[in-house]
Amino acid sequence: MRVAVFSTKAYDRRFLEAANARFGHALSFFEARLDAQTAVLAEGHEAVCVFVNDRLDAEVLGALAEAGVRTVALRCAGYNNVDLRAAAALGIAVVRVPAYSPHAVAEFTVALLMALDRKIHRAWARVRENNFALDGLIGRNLHGRTVGVIGTGRIGALVAKAFRGGFGCEVLASDVARDPELEALGVRYVEPAELLRQVDIVTLHCPLTPETRHIVDAAAIAAAQPGLIVVNTSRGGLIDTAALIEGLKSRKIAGVALDVYEQEADLFFEDLSNEIIQDDVFQRLLTFPNVLVTGHQAFLTEEALDAIATTTLDSLARADAGEEMPLRLSLEAMHG
Ligand code: NAD
Fold first, then answer.
1. Which of 20, 73, 80, 247 has the fewest beta carbons under 10 Å from its own?
2. Taking a C-beta distance cutoff of 8 angstroms, is the pair 313, 19 a contact?
3. Mind telling me the catalytic residues?
4. Cα–Cα distance for residue pair 252/162, rounded to 1 Å
Protein backbone atom coordinates (compact mmCIF):
# COMPACT_ATOMS: atom_id res chain seq x y z
CA MET A 1 0.00 0.00 0.00
CA ARG A 2 1.20 3.55 -0.72
CA VAL A 3 1.33 5.35 2.60
CA ALA A 4 2.09 9.04 3.26
CA VAL A 5 3.68 9.29 6.70
CA PHE A 6 3.21 12.74 8.26
CA SER A 7 5.07 14.38 11.16
CA THR A 8 7.98 12.02 10.54
CA LYS A 9 10.88 12.15 12.99
CA ALA A 10 14.13 10.18 12.59
CA TYR A 11 12.92 7.61 15.14
CA ASP A 12 9.58 7.12 13.34
CA ARG A 13 11.40 6.42 10.09
CA ARG A 14 13.86 4.05 11.77
CA PHE A 15 11.18 1.91 13.40
CA LEU A 16 8.68 2.02 10.50
CA GLU A 17 11.35 1.05 7.94
CA ALA A 18 12.59 -1.81 10.13
CA ALA A 19 9.06 -3.18 10.65
CA ASN A 20 8.15 -2.65 6.98
CA ALA A 21 10.64 -5.34 5.95
CA ARG A 22 7.79 -7.74 6.87
CA PHE A 23 5.02 -5.84 5.04
CA GLY A 24 6.51 -4.19 1.93
CA HIS A 25 4.38 -1.03 1.92
CA ALA A 26 5.58 1.94 -0.17
CA LEU A 27 6.21 4.52 2.56
CA SER A 28 6.67 8.24 1.72
CA PHE A 29 8.02 10.17 4.70
CA PHE A 30 7.07 13.82 5.24
CA GLU A 31 8.34 15.97 8.11
CA ALA A 32 5.33 18.28 7.72
CA ARG A 33 2.43 18.02 10.12
CA LEU A 34 -0.84 17.13 8.39
CA ASP A 35 -3.21 20.10 8.08
CA ALA A 36 -5.30 21.82 5.41
CA GLN A 37 -2.14 23.13 3.68
CA THR A 38 -0.15 19.90 3.69
CA ALA A 39 -2.98 17.45 2.90
CA VAL A 40 -2.04 17.77 -0.78
CA LEU A 41 1.14 15.76 -0.04
CA ALA A 42 -1.11 12.71 0.34
CA GLU A 43 -1.94 12.81 -3.38
CA GLY A 44 -1.27 9.37 -4.90
CA HIS A 45 -1.36 7.52 -1.56
CA GLU A 46 -4.14 5.20 -0.38
CA ALA A 47 -3.35 5.79 3.27
CA VAL A 48 -1.87 8.37 5.61
CA CYS A 49 -0.02 7.56 8.82
CA VAL A 50 -0.31 10.34 11.41
CA PHE A 51 0.51 11.24 15.02
CA VAL A 52 -1.07 13.09 17.94
CA ASN A 53 -0.81 16.67 16.68
CA ASP A 54 -1.72 16.09 13.05
CA ARG A 55 -5.06 17.66 12.30
CA LEU A 56 -7.82 15.45 10.91
CA ASP A 57 -10.84 17.73 10.98
CA ALA A 58 -13.61 17.65 8.36
CA GLU A 59 -11.72 19.98 6.01
CA VAL A 60 -8.50 17.95 6.07
CA LEU A 61 -10.35 14.64 5.79
CA GLY A 62 -12.25 16.02 2.79
CA ALA A 63 -8.96 16.97 1.13
CA LEU A 64 -7.52 13.52 1.90
CA ALA A 65 -10.57 11.81 0.39
CA GLU A 66 -10.16 13.90 -2.76
CA ALA A 67 -6.49 12.90 -2.89
CA GLY A 68 -7.57 9.25 -2.92
CA VAL A 69 -6.90 8.36 0.72
CA ARG A 70 -9.10 5.54 2.05
CA THR A 71 -7.39 4.78 5.37
CA VAL A 72 -6.00 6.88 8.21
CA ALA A 73 -3.58 5.05 10.49
CA LEU A 74 -2.92 6.79 13.79
CA ARG A 75 0.41 5.72 15.25
CA CYS A 76 -0.88 6.54 18.73
CA ALA A 77 -3.69 5.56 21.10
CA GLY A 78 -5.57 8.87 21.52
CA TYR A 79 -7.81 10.00 18.65
CA ASN A 80 -9.20 13.32 19.90
CA ASN A 81 -7.61 15.01 16.84
CA VAL A 82 -9.84 13.06 14.39
CA ASP A 83 -13.37 13.98 13.34
CA LEU A 84 -14.64 10.39 13.26
CA ARG A 85 -18.07 11.48 12.03
CA ALA A 86 -16.55 13.22 9.01
CA ALA A 87 -14.29 10.23 8.33
CA ALA A 88 -17.28 7.86 8.41
CA ALA A 89 -19.26 10.12 6.05
CA LEU A 90 -16.33 10.16 3.61
CA GLY A 91 -15.87 6.37 3.82
CA ILE A 92 -12.38 6.75 5.31
CA ALA A 93 -11.41 3.98 7.76
CA VAL A 94 -9.50 5.09 10.86
CA VAL A 95 -7.23 2.70 12.73
CA ARG A 96 -5.12 3.35 15.80
CA VAL A 97 -2.71 1.57 18.13
CA PRO A 98 -4.71 1.28 21.34
CA ALA A 99 -2.20 -0.60 23.47
CA TYR A 100 1.32 -0.40 22.10
CA SER A 101 2.99 -0.36 25.48
CA PRO A 102 1.05 0.84 28.48
CA HIS A 103 4.19 0.09 30.51
CA ALA A 104 6.09 2.84 28.65
CA VAL A 105 3.59 5.52 29.73
CA ALA A 106 2.94 4.11 33.21
CA GLU A 107 6.64 3.88 34.05
CA PHE A 108 7.25 7.40 32.74
CA THR A 109 4.37 8.70 34.87
CA VAL A 110 5.93 7.32 38.04
CA ALA A 111 9.38 8.61 36.97
CA LEU A 112 8.02 12.10 36.30
CA LEU A 113 6.23 12.29 39.65
CA MET A 114 9.27 11.03 41.55
CA ALA A 115 11.64 13.40 39.75
CA LEU A 116 9.35 16.31 40.66
CA ASP A 117 8.64 15.21 44.22
CA ARG A 118 12.29 14.41 45.08
CA LYS A 119 13.48 17.48 43.14
CA ILE A 120 15.83 15.47 40.96
CA HIS A 121 15.55 17.98 38.10
CA ARG A 122 16.77 20.76 40.37
CA ALA A 123 19.46 18.62 42.01
CA TRP A 124 20.90 17.69 38.60
CA ALA A 125 21.10 21.34 37.55
CA ARG A 126 22.89 22.19 40.83
CA VAL A 127 25.41 19.35 40.67
CA ARG A 128 26.39 20.40 37.16
CA GLU A 129 27.36 23.75 38.69
CA ASN A 130 29.30 22.04 41.50
CA ASN A 131 26.60 23.18 43.92
CA PHE A 132 26.13 20.29 46.32
CA ALA A 133 23.98 22.17 48.84
CA LEU A 134 20.80 20.32 49.80
CA ASP A 135 18.79 23.34 50.90
CA GLY A 136 15.44 23.45 49.08
CA LEU A 137 15.65 19.82 47.94
CA ILE A 138 13.55 18.24 50.69
CA GLY A 139 11.04 15.76 49.24
CA ARG A 140 8.29 13.55 50.64
CA ASN A 141 8.01 9.77 50.99
CA LEU A 142 5.46 8.25 48.64
CA HIS A 143 4.71 5.53 51.17
CA GLY A 144 1.50 6.30 53.04
CA ARG A 145 0.38 9.16 50.80
CA THR A 146 -2.96 9.08 48.99
CA VAL A 147 -2.79 8.92 45.21
CA GLY A 148 -5.81 9.43 42.95
CA VAL A 149 -5.85 7.75 39.54
CA ILE A 150 -8.47 9.10 37.12
CA GLY A 151 -8.96 6.52 34.37
CA THR A 152 -7.92 2.96 35.27
CA GLY A 153 -7.61 1.52 31.76
CA ARG A 154 -4.41 -0.03 30.50
CA ILE A 155 -2.06 2.73 31.67
CA GLY A 156 -3.94 3.89 34.75
CA ALA A 157 -4.23 0.33 36.10
CA LEU A 158 -0.45 -0.16 35.89
CA VAL A 159 0.10 3.19 37.62
CA ALA A 160 -2.40 2.31 40.36
CA LYS A 161 -0.65 -1.05 40.92
CA ALA A 162 2.77 0.61 41.12
CA PHE A 163 1.61 3.09 43.74
CA ARG A 164 -0.43 0.56 45.69
CA GLY A 165 1.71 -2.58 45.50
CA GLY A 166 5.11 -0.99 44.92
CA PHE A 167 5.12 2.06 47.18
CA GLY A 168 2.35 1.24 49.66
CA CYS A 169 0.21 4.28 48.91
CA GLU A 170 -3.49 4.61 49.55
CA VAL A 171 -4.97 4.61 46.05
CA LEU A 172 -8.32 6.10 45.10
CA ALA A 173 -9.56 5.64 41.55
CA SER A 174 -12.23 7.07 39.32
CA ASP A 175 -13.48 5.49 36.12
CA VAL A 176 -16.75 4.82 34.34
CA ALA A 177 -15.91 1.10 34.73
CA ARG A 178 -14.37 -0.51 37.82
CA ASP A 179 -11.40 -2.89 37.63
CA PRO A 180 -12.02 -5.77 40.11
CA GLU A 181 -8.33 -6.68 40.08
CA LEU A 182 -7.48 -3.23 41.40
CA GLU A 183 -10.26 -3.38 43.96
CA ALA A 184 -8.81 -6.70 45.19
CA LEU A 185 -5.51 -4.85 45.75
CA GLY A 186 -7.29 -2.30 47.94
CA VAL A 187 -7.84 0.44 45.35
CA ARG A 188 -11.06 2.26 46.23
CA TYR A 189 -13.30 3.71 43.48
CA VAL A 190 -14.95 7.09 44.16
CA GLU A 191 -16.50 9.89 42.08
CA PRO A 192 -13.94 12.23 40.46
CA ALA A 193 -14.99 15.21 42.62
CA GLU A 194 -14.53 13.18 45.81
CA LEU A 195 -11.21 11.82 44.58
CA LEU A 196 -9.92 15.32 43.92
CA ARG A 197 -11.02 16.39 47.42
CA GLN A 198 -9.19 13.55 49.18
CA VAL A 199 -5.88 12.90 47.45
CA ASP A 200 -2.34 14.25 47.92
CA ILE A 201 -1.43 13.40 44.33
CA VAL A 202 -3.71 13.10 41.31
CA THR A 203 -2.60 11.43 38.08
CA LEU A 204 -4.73 11.56 34.92
CA HIS A 205 -5.14 8.56 32.62
CA CYS A 206 -8.58 9.00 31.06
CA PRO A 207 -9.04 9.97 27.41
CA LEU A 208 -9.87 13.55 26.43
CA THR A 209 -13.61 13.72 25.73
CA PRO A 210 -16.21 16.48 26.17
CA GLU A 211 -16.92 14.96 29.64
CA THR A 212 -13.28 14.90 30.77
CA ARG A 213 -12.15 18.25 29.29
CA HIS A 214 -10.82 20.45 32.13
CA ILE A 215 -11.56 17.75 34.70
CA VAL A 216 -8.95 19.61 36.76
CA ASP A 217 -10.35 23.16 36.78
CA ALA A 218 -10.60 26.07 39.22
CA ALA A 219 -13.45 24.43 41.17
CA ALA A 220 -11.60 21.11 41.50
CA ILE A 221 -8.45 22.89 42.65
CA ALA A 222 -10.42 25.00 45.16
CA ALA A 223 -11.93 21.83 46.66
CA ALA A 224 -8.61 19.91 46.73
CA GLN A 225 -6.30 19.31 49.69
CA PRO A 226 -3.69 22.05 50.16
CA GLY A 227 -0.40 20.80 48.75
CA LEU A 228 -1.95 18.82 45.88
CA ILE A 229 0.42 17.45 43.26
CA VAL A 230 -0.97 17.14 39.73
CA VAL A 231 0.47 14.69 37.20
CA ASN A 232 -0.73 14.51 33.60
CA THR A 233 0.69 12.16 30.98
CA SER A 234 -2.65 11.69 29.19
CA ARG A 235 -3.88 14.72 27.24
CA GLY A 236 -3.31 18.42 27.93
CA GLY A 237 -6.98 19.36 27.59
CA LEU A 238 -7.80 17.48 30.80
CA ILE A 239 -6.41 20.46 32.73
CA ASP A 240 -7.44 24.11 32.70
CA THR A 241 -3.89 25.48 32.60
CA ALA A 242 -4.87 29.01 33.66
CA ALA A 243 -6.52 27.56 36.79
CA LEU A 244 -3.45 25.40 37.41
CA ILE A 245 -1.23 28.49 37.33
CA GLU A 246 -3.51 30.28 39.82
CA GLY A 247 -3.33 27.19 42.04
CA LEU A 248 0.48 27.27 41.89
CA LYS A 249 0.62 31.02 42.60
CA SER A 250 -1.63 30.67 45.65
CA ARG A 251 0.46 27.62 46.78
CA LYS A 252 -2.67 25.48 46.91
CA ILE A 253 -0.87 23.25 44.42
CA ALA A 254 2.55 22.06 45.60
CA GLY A 255 3.77 20.56 42.35
CA VAL A 256 2.89 19.84 38.74
CA ALA A 257 4.40 17.20 36.46
CA LEU A 258 3.23 17.33 32.86
CA ASP A 259 4.10 15.40 29.72
CA VAL A 260 1.20 16.97 27.81
CA TYR A 261 -0.14 20.50 27.48
CA GLU A 262 -3.40 21.82 26.06
CA GLN A 263 -1.73 23.97 23.37
CA GLU A 264 1.16 21.57 22.76
CA ALA A 265 0.44 21.33 19.02
CA ASP A 266 2.20 24.70 18.57
CA LEU A 267 5.26 23.63 20.58
CA PHE A 268 6.02 19.99 21.08
CA PHE A 269 8.14 17.67 18.92
CA GLU A 270 10.10 20.60 17.42
CA ASP A 271 13.41 22.26 18.33
CA LEU A 272 12.28 25.81 19.12
CA SER A 273 15.43 26.75 21.08
CA ASN A 274 16.15 29.66 18.72
CA GLU A 275 12.57 30.89 18.58
CA ILE A 276 10.60 33.38 20.66
CA ILE A 277 7.81 31.37 22.24
CA GLN A 278 4.51 33.22 21.89
CA ASP A 279 2.56 31.13 24.39
CA ASP A 280 2.66 33.19 27.60
CA VAL A 281 0.71 30.61 29.59
CA PHE A 282 3.24 27.90 28.80
CA GLN A 283 6.15 30.24 29.53
CA ARG A 284 4.62 31.15 32.90
CA LEU A 285 4.32 27.45 33.76
CA LEU A 286 8.04 26.98 33.16
CA THR A 287 8.95 29.72 35.66
CA PHE A 288 7.75 27.74 38.68
CA PRO A 289 10.43 25.77 40.53
CA ASN A 290 7.84 23.11 41.37
CA VAL A 291 6.73 22.42 37.79
CA LEU A 292 8.36 19.76 35.63
CA VAL A 293 7.36 19.56 31.97
CA THR A 294 8.44 17.11 29.29
CA GLY A 295 7.42 17.28 25.64
CA HIS A 296 5.04 14.31 25.21
CA GLN A 297 7.68 11.61 25.50
CA ALA A 298 6.00 9.12 27.83
CA PHE A 299 5.48 6.69 24.93
CA LEU A 300 9.09 6.92 23.74
CA THR A 301 10.67 3.52 24.42
CA GLU A 302 12.25 1.05 22.00
CA GLU A 303 9.51 -1.46 22.81
CA ALA A 304 6.68 1.01 22.23
CA LEU A 305 8.08 2.36 18.95
CA ASP A 306 8.54 -1.18 17.64
CA ALA A 307 5.00 -2.14 18.67
CA ILE A 308 3.53 1.05 17.16
CA ALA A 309 5.30 0.48 13.83
CA THR A 310 4.35 -3.20 13.59
CA THR A 311 0.70 -2.71 14.58
CA THR A 312 0.25 0.27 12.24
CA LEU A 313 1.76 -1.50 9.23
CA ASP A 314 -0.23 -4.66 9.99
CA SER A 315 -3.51 -2.68 10.03
CA LEU A 316 -2.57 -1.12 6.67
CA ALA A 317 -1.77 -4.55 5.21
CA ARG A 318 -5.23 -5.73 6.30
CA ALA A 319 -6.83 -2.63 4.73
CA ASP A 320 -4.92 -3.34 1.51
CA ALA A 321 -6.15 -6.95 1.49
CA GLY A 322 -9.73 -5.80 2.13
CA GLU A 323 -9.70 -7.67 5.44
CA GLU A 324 -11.44 -6.78 8.68
CA MET A 325 -9.33 -4.31 10.69
CA PRO A 326 -9.74 -5.19 14.38
CA LEU A 327 -8.26 -1.86 15.52
CA ARG A 328 -10.59 0.22 13.35
CA LEU A 329 -12.29 3.06 15.24
CA SER A 330 -16.05 3.21 15.07
CA LEU A 331 -18.31 6.18 15.67
CA GLU A 332 -19.40 4.55 18.94
CA ALA A 333 -15.78 4.77 20.08
CA MET A 334 -16.29 8.51 20.38
CA HIS A 335 -18.41 7.87 23.40
CA GLY A 336 -16.67 4.78 24.77
P1 NAD B 1 -7.62 3.05 27.98
O2 NAD B 1 -8.70 3.25 26.99
O3 NAD B 1 -7.10 1.68 28.23
O4 NAD B 1 -8.08 3.63 29.39
C5 NAD B 1 -8.79 4.83 29.53
C6 NAD B 1 -9.68 4.66 30.75
O7 NAD B 1 -10.34 5.92 30.98
C8 NAD B 1 -10.78 3.61 30.56
O9 NAD B 1 -10.76 2.69 31.65
C10 NAD B 1 -12.06 4.41 30.51
O11 NAD B 1 -13.18 3.72 31.05
C12 NAD B 1 -11.67 5.60 31.38
N13 NAD B 1 -12.56 6.75 31.22
C14 NAD B 1 -13.27 7.12 30.13
N15 NAD B 1 -14.01 8.20 30.41
C16 NAD B 1 -13.77 8.51 31.71
C17 NAD B 1 -14.25 9.51 32.59
N18 NAD B 1 -15.15 10.41 32.17
N19 NAD B 1 -13.78 9.53 33.86
C20 NAD B 1 -12.88 8.61 34.30
N21 NAD B 1 -12.39 7.62 33.49
C22 NAD B 1 -12.83 7.58 32.22
O23 NAD B 1 -6.45 4.05 27.54
P24 NAD B 1 -4.92 3.96 27.95
O25 NAD B 1 -4.18 3.13 26.96
O26 NAD B 1 -4.79 3.64 29.39
O27 NAD B 1 -4.48 5.49 27.70
C28 NAD B 1 -4.97 6.54 28.52
C29 NAD B 1 -4.66 7.86 27.87
O30 NAD B 1 -3.24 8.05 27.87
C31 NAD B 1 -5.06 7.91 26.37
O32 NAD B 1 -6.37 8.37 26.24
C33 NAD B 1 -4.06 8.87 25.78
O34 NAD B 1 -4.69 10.14 25.71
C35 NAD B 1 -2.91 8.92 26.79
N36 NAD B 1 -1.61 8.50 26.25
C37 NAD B 1 -0.55 9.35 26.39
C38 NAD B 1 0.71 8.96 25.92
C39 NAD B 1 1.95 9.85 26.08
O40 NAD B 1 2.95 9.60 25.41
N41 NAD B 1 1.94 10.85 26.95
C42 NAD B 1 0.86 7.73 25.28
C43 NAD B 1 -0.27 6.88 25.17
C44 NAD B 1 -1.50 7.27 25.65
1. 80
2. yes
3. 235, 264, 296
4. 26
Distance 153 CA to ligand 1 centre (A): 6
Query: Which domains are present in the chain?
Result: 2-100+301-334 (3.40.50.720), 102-293 (3.40.50.720)
- Of ligand 1's listed atoms, the one at least distance from the Cα of 157 is 26
Give the atom of ligand 1 at the shortest distance from the alpha carbon of 155.
26
Q: Give the largest CA-CA distance in the chain.
A: 64
**Encoded amino acid at 333, one letter:** A
Helix (H), strand (E) at residue 180: helix 180-184
Pick from 109, 79, 38, 128: nearest CA to 330: 79
Residue-wise over 183-221: b if at least 16 C-beta within 10 A, else e?
eeeebebeebeebbbbbbbbbbbbbbeeebebbbbeebb
Give the residue, out of 149, 196, 206, 216, with the most ligand 1 atoms within 8 A of its beta carbon, to mutate for a pocket test: 206
pTM score: 0.91
Q: What is the mean pLDDT of residues 294-317?
A: 96
Interval 218-234: pLDDT, tens: 999 999 999 999 999 99
Enter the DSSP assignment of 239.
B
Q: Which atom of ligand 1 is nearest to the CA of 298?
A: 40
pLDDT in tens, 53-65: 899 999 999 999 9
Reduced to 3 states (helix: H, G, I; strand: E, B; else coil), residue 29 is: strand
Calculate how far, in angstroms, residue 151's C-alpha sits from the geometric centre of ligand 1: 6
- Return the closest-CA partner of residue 202 out of 232, 158, 178, 157: 232
